[in-house]
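Workshop exercise sheet. Pairs work together: one partner reads the sequence aloud, the other fills in the structure field after running the prediction. Swap roles for the next sheet.
Pair: D.N. / O.F.
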Amino acid sequence: SGDGTIEIVDAPCVVSTDSQNQEVVLGQVKKNIFKAIGDKSSSKPFQIKLEDCDITSNTKVNVSFNGVGDTDDATLVSVNTEAGAATGVGIGIYDNANKLVEMNTGKSTTTLAAGQTVLYYTANYVATKDTVTTGYGNAEVDFNLSYE
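Structure field:
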């Protein structure tokens, strides 16, 4: 946990402190790049670092992402609907093979390395409507790890 408390876990790896509570800044994006549903902004990379990995009993990690699904495309996370929020876009999260990790249902699987394993992802805005309006595009997403 990133709040100064200690947490004991029964897992083959520990999530690095700098990976626990991240902010991925997608930045300002021009509205005119979204000409059709599915058009994407440029990708912003982020990573999840796993440390102290013991691969004697588990050799793979599954990562899933959970958040509020977009009402037009539930595979994407919805941007928050506060006053001043953009509309017509969601946020997609992609694995290192550039495959969409579907929100709340999908997962990406990676083989663990002894010691440290770094999981690479990208995020970007994706048009979910023919018309995108300007505004804030903030969202919250949790990641969950399971091992096999």
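Discussion prompt: The chain has a mean pLDDT of 92. What would you look at next?
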